[in-house]
Design a protein that fits this description.
- The chain is mostly beta strands.
- The protein has 2 helices and 16 strands.
- It is globular and about 50 Å long.
- β15 and β16 form a beta hairpin.
- The termini are far apart.
- The longest helix has 8 residues.
């Protein structure tokens, strides 16, 4: 996984997890997924028509500036005869920073509306001169369930492969929405909860840790009651792998990722939700 995808990688993982380090083997079928209340459509934390807006901030020395923006939207449709959601995550560097390092990221994920089972995933990435495109099709009916992956990068060219698939394997946007239905009452403080996700040609073992509840001030929103999580970061070109990423989600039925921050090799990246629309539940964690 290329290290420069700060905007989209942070956003897609800001709710629950980030890889500590790529593992040699995927999480086994017997590994428990994050405990969720339910994945039936009527009881989900979200609905079709939801849209969230984010700003990504970077701080290092004298630099203290917003550097990018992203949106996460959710629509309903029919996919190969199944009622499904389609999540679109789009991010870009701010116009001024395009001069130095232009980033455009487009992640799309299709998953069932009842059960949140992944069906398809695409990624279209431009990071400076680097380009990457993924197309995943989930084959749940095969004797050995797997992901049929069609992959392209400007460094390695075109390739195809099968990626191992278990009931706890997701692409990043599907994982983002699955984890929003976690059953907080069954999540223990300071305990590591594993999951897996696939991106490019790798499957990663990941975990998150519940840290507790906290009221924070989010620029543009105000004071928000939140549930705080930590997750280990992938050591590589950007992240140092020594410190945790921290995520704050709204302490209400929506479970919105309102703020997150992550230490980089140089400086600190942070993101904040600036607004949301089409929510299924009242934004009751916002302190008036």
């Amino acid at each position: 996984m290329n290290g420069h995808s700060i905007i989209l990688i942070l956003l897609c993982t800001c709710l629950s997890v980030f890889p500590m380090r790529a593992q040699e083997n995927p999480v086994s079928e017997g590994t428990a997924c994050v405990p969720v209340r339910t994945t039936s459509e009527e009881e989900l934390a979200f609905k079709g028509g939801e849209k969230m807006y984010f700003t990504v901030h970077y701080k290092w020395g004298a630099i203290n500036s917003d550097v990018g923006h992203a949106t996460v939207s959710l629509d309903t449709l029919t996919f190969n005869g199944e009622e499904a959601f389609c999540c679109k995550v789009y991010g870009r560097t701010a116009k001024f920073y395009d001069i130095f390092f232009k980033v455009r990221e487009d992640f799309r994920s299709w998953f069932t509306r009842d059960g949140l089972r992944p069906l398809k995933f695409t990624r279209d990435t431009q990071e400076g001169r680097y380009e990457a495109r993924n197309t995943y099709l989930y084959d749940w009916d095969a004797a050995d369930p797997h992901i049929d992956a069609d992959l392209y990068t400007s460094r390695r060219g075109q390739s195809s492969m099968e990626i191992p698939l278990t009931s706890c394997t997701f692409d990043l946007p599907a994982l983002f929405f699955f984890a929003r239905n976690m059953d907080i009452g069954k999540v223990e403080l300071e305990k590591k909860y594993p999951m897996t996700f696939a991106i490019d040609d790798d499957v990663y073992n990941v975990y998150f840790i519940l840290k507790g509840r906290e009221t924070i001030k989010v620029k543009g929103l105000g004071r928000v009651r939140t549930i705080k999580f930590a997750a280990k970061l992938l050591e590589g070109e950007v992240f140092n792998g020594d410190e945790d990423m921290t995520i704050w989600i709204s302490d209400d039925e929506n479970r919105l990722p309102v703020y997150f921050e992550a230490p980089l090799q140089v400086g600190l990246a942070a993101g904040r939700m600036t607004r949301a629309e089409g929510l299924k539940h009242p934004f009751s964690s916002l302190v008036k």
